[in-house]
Batch of 2 targets.
Target 1
Amino acid sequence: MADDRAKIAEFEKAVADFTGAKEGVAVNSGTAALHAAMFAIGIEPGDEVIVPTMTFAATANCVLYQDAKPVLVDVLPESLLIDPAAVEAAITPHTKAIIGVDYAGHPCNLGALRQIADRHGLILVEDACHSLGAEYSGKKIGRIADLTCFSFHPVKHITTGEGGMTLTHRPEFAERMRRFRNHGISSDQRQRTEQGTWFYEMVDLGFNYRITDFQCALGMSQLAKLPGWLQRRRSIAGIYDAELASLPYVTPLRKDSDILHAYHLYVVKIDFSRLGRSRKEVFLKLRSQGIGVNVHYIPVHLHPYYQQKLGYRRGSFPVAEAVYEQILSLPMYATLKDEEIARVMDRLKEITQTV
Ligand SMILES: *Cc1c(COP(=O)(O)O)cnc(C)c1O
């Protein structure tokens, strides 16, 4: 019991070192990492935070947790990444931050977003739950945005069971997040033991977002395997890219030349109307053949909660809505075997070539 948090600090340092970030604050989910980021930058009622609608709901929910307003914006049709022009158009005097999402593992346009953020005095937050190990302009994701949030849920690149981490180069943000994950209390158990005192103060309204030592021990062993897993994901994507080039109705998402992709997902767009089959038909057929296809994501503004409580309507974001009808995620994980990749391609070819 002498130092029960040693593994947490070790894991935080290891992830920070891996990405080149100064500080990492580990919490018990990616959602908590996003919430901690919103807290650290002082998001409060009346504030607005710009979020792309093509993401997992947690990216926008973290703004609601602070009683502030997530302002959803549309995405680019070829990459499904946040559209910088839409961000610029959504800025008001209440805007405090932008959350870019590295959809599928492709870094969002951090250069353009940084310029917009600097011009308007906004904080740039990155939801990098898909992009651990990705790079933008030769720099690892984690050291570019003001705050970068990762998830260690079992479907992500590395797992701690449940878990997450926010990286930052600003020590004051890290300090606020360390308090936030521990009820807003100003010193933790270890500090109190070291100081031999019972005294503590709650200075913020925090949460219990603590991750455990044994989860971080798992995280350390996972992190050691990450480079090999990333390499495998990239080679699977290379095979998919090459095979899909000859398929008429199937197009992979665009990949920019100045990035290194982390391939959390491999998403294709299928022109179902020209193919003459519905997505549901293709989806169910592939599933019945044991091919684990999926759809990521239903745009946030189409969820009942966002329509009923925030007044979003179908039709608000035409690009995301149109692309949503076309997307399908193909199996993508490091342990996928060559024979399985070949089978995915054979079944996909079958159903997209015969009409
Ligand atoms: C997984 C994920 C989250 C949430 O992470 P949890 O660890 O499940 O809370 C947030 N945003 C995106 C884009 C994700 O993929």
Target 2
Amino acid sequence: MTGTADVGANIASVRARVAEAARRAGRSPEEITIVAASKQVPTARIRQAMAHGLTCFGENYVQEAVAKMNELGYAIPPPDGTQPAVAAGGPPAWHLIGSLQRNKVRHVVGRFALIHSVDSLELGREVGRRASALGIVVPVLIEVNLGAEESKSGVSPEEAIPLAEQLAGVPGVSVQGLMGMPPYCPDPERSRPYFATLKSIFDGLDNQFRRFLSMGMTMDFEQAIEEGANIVRVGTGIFGPRQK
Ligand SMILES: *Cc1c(COP(=O)(O)O)cnc(C)c1O
């Protein structure tokens, strides 16, 4: 399902499908956060999504994200690593869902509500260093490369828990869960075992790290929710095809 031109109708449909998947899994739809993946989406269209009540947007490229924040504002992340309160009509919370280079960390800390893509101790340390200098704690997820794909970033499944434990000793960062993406396949049922793997790693984390499980995109968010996701990242299903 790729979204239509009508952002409002797309959002209504994604919300209904999220709620149905949650109910099938015996969970409450309120547990699940929809992050609208807005890379390459113009701000006019993001405003439409905001007008329909979406409050979380996920960006891949730091420069593009900062330009959008300058235009649309951003909910200031609380200093203690919790999520910002977002109100209808107020500035949205931005999530960094694309991979993060170390030289971009200074543009990210203090602006993004959640970084989904920490995949090394060095990167986590740099986030912590910048955060500590501002007197804040930045919430992060560890990105796991589920299909051992060379084209994708992320730690291997075996490295996720050790990295969380190492980062627990780094001031300024707070590991709050995992993010992962199965290898691309047009059949969403093929994503399910990868989601189940990520959920089992998540369940093996110490309680303090087990808050957000970010998995599922337009094609497979229902399978992800059934397997335990509480954040889904939906782009084309909300905005329609991306501009190149
Ligand atoms: C683009 C993107 C998404 C959304 O993809 P869609 O197929 O458009 O829903 C989700 N997660 C990440 C990391 C992305 O880069």
